[in-house]
């Protein structure tokens, strides 16, 4: 945990409800300075409500929101030293790019020289030098979003809050902007809190991902850790692709966790065990961690089965293998490894114990 003076945002037991509907159910979060944090979750899980409370548009029912150590409850948005880039936070159409970017600096009553310098610096950060005199309608979607970003960062806020800022852009531009946003954030060294329902976006840009479900934090951590060690079926399913296989019996023998899958086959799991053996109801295996074994291979964690379905996706093939009448495992196999394998083939799958993640139901 970072020391207190290195923390930009802290949420302490924050709750928010509308009528008797609790939409944020007691959130604790610490965002250190310079971190890119994504709040990720399905529609309605409370992401925007959480961001709006940090911004000051909504007050929490209970708990504290601290920015750089100071409780912000009761402090209006314009006094919070935050920048905002929201999907619907449109540019002023009657103002040029430079005037849009100057807006926040003017509100802060900066001098003409400071405004000019601030606009120049912000436009340089987002690679829009030369566009100063254009109007928003003369810009592409990506350029408009970069202008909105420049407008938000020009007053040099402590923290930038972004709510689905890329969702109106087409896929190609969205992917390009992900890389650009991350680079800009790193160059500025500014704290970014980014709300999205797009797990790829969150994984690609964030230092840390906070997964929300039903108004609470389901898991938080580095993208790689969340991907490799989801703590629940919800997180495993929401982040990336996964096999979620039913476990009928769990046994801890010789220091190894043995999971009996529905229909008979057993897998050994070598993953941090976060729950008692008898509460484990599922295991998560990522399809890319399932390999084709040699026919004569003999070792632990081999599953024999019959190919049920194959979908060729170019570089790899998704292969569904029935390993019992009640259990199908999906594997992602490089095309070159699949010679001679067709639907109906008998195959053997190999899954490393560290790729088997036990989960409670
Ligand atoms: N002003 C309001 N009055 C009543 N209910 C609200 C209000 N604002 C949000 N809600 C409810 O709170 C819940 C969380 O909404 P929120 O916008 O935070 O979700 P979200 O995770 O950001 O979803 P999305 O990705 O769809 O924007 C939803 O069930 C929503 O209907």
From TrEMBL:
Keywords: ATP-binding, Cell inner membrane, Cell membrane, Membrane, Nucleotide-binding, Translocase, Transport. One of its GO terms (molecular function) is ATP binding. Residues 9-239 form the ABC transporter domain. It comes from the Bacteria. This is ABC transporter ATP-binding protein. It comes from Devosia yakushimensis. The lineage of its organism: Bacteria, Pseudomonadati, Pseudomonadota, Alphaproteobacteria, Hyphomicrobiales.
């Amino acid at each position: 945990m970072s020391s207190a003076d290195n923390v930009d945002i802290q949420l302490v037991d924050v709750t928010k409800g509308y009528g008797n509907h609790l939409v944020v159910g007691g959130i604790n979060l610490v965002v250190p300075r310079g971190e890119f944090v994504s709040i990720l979750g399905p529609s309605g899980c409370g992401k925007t409500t959480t961001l709006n409370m940090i911004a000051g548009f909504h007050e929490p029912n209970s708990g504290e929101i601290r920015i750089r150590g100071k409780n912000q409850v009761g402090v209006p948005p314009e006094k919070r030293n935050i920048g905002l880039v929201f999907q619907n936070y449109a540019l002023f159409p009657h103002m040029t790019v430079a005037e849009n970017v100057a807006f926040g600096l003017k509100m802060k009553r900066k001098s003409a020289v400071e405004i000019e310098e601030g606009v120049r610096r912000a436009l340089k950060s987002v690679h829009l030098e030369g566009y100063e005199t254009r109007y928003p309608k003369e810009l592409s979607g990506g350029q408009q979003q970069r202008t909105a970003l420049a407008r938000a960062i020009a007053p040099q806020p402590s923290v930038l809050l972004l709510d689905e800022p890329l969702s109106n852009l087409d896929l190609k531009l969205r992917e390009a902007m992900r890389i650009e946003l991350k680079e800009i954030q790193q160059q500025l060294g500014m704290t970014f809190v980014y709300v999205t329902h797009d797990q790829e976006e969150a994984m690609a840009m964030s230092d840390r991902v906070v997964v929300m479900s039903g108004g609470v934090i389901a898991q938080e951590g580095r993208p790689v850790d969340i991907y490799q060690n989801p703590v629940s079926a919800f997180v495993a399913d929401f982040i990336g692709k996964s096999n979620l296989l039913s476990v009928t019996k769990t046994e801890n023998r010789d220091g190894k966790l043995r999971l009996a899958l529905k229909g008979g086959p057993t897998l050994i799991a070598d993953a941090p065990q976060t729950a008692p053996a008898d509460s484990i109801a599922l295991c998560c295996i990522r399809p890319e961690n399932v390999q084709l074994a040699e026919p004569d291979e003999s070792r632990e964690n081999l599953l024999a089965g019959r190919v049920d379905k194959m979908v060729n996706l170019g570089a790899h093939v998704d292969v569904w293998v029935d390993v019992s009448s009640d259990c199908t495992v999906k594997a992602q196999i490089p095309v070159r490894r699949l010679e001679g394998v067709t639907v109906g083939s008998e195959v053997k799958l190999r899954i490393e114990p560290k790729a088997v993640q036990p989960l409670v139901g």
